[in-house]
Specification:
Layout lengths: L2 H7 L2 H7 L22 H4 L1 H4 L9 H6 L13 H14 L6
Length: 97
Amino acid sequence: GSFWWRDILKNLHTFKEMAIVHTNNGETCLFWQDKWQGQPFQIDYPELTSFAKDKRISVKITLELEDIANLLQIPVSQIAYEQLQTLTQRTINFHFN
């Protein structure tokens, strides 16, 4: 890539900290890393995120699953299990825009 893009990408993390994502259909919104329900889930649920098989999975793919636990490397720690319960409650009634 060009040196211009490298300079721009250095600021991506800072931009993502300020930006809020509108999910629309959820295909381009990252479940763990984007701010689509307050703080990114990787910040709210760090222990649970450490067990995620794919940290760049989309919101759409994740919420189409019957059980978010299918996205995790099993077994998980007790703290991660508790975070999973909280996360499930937070996302159970989510509807795309």
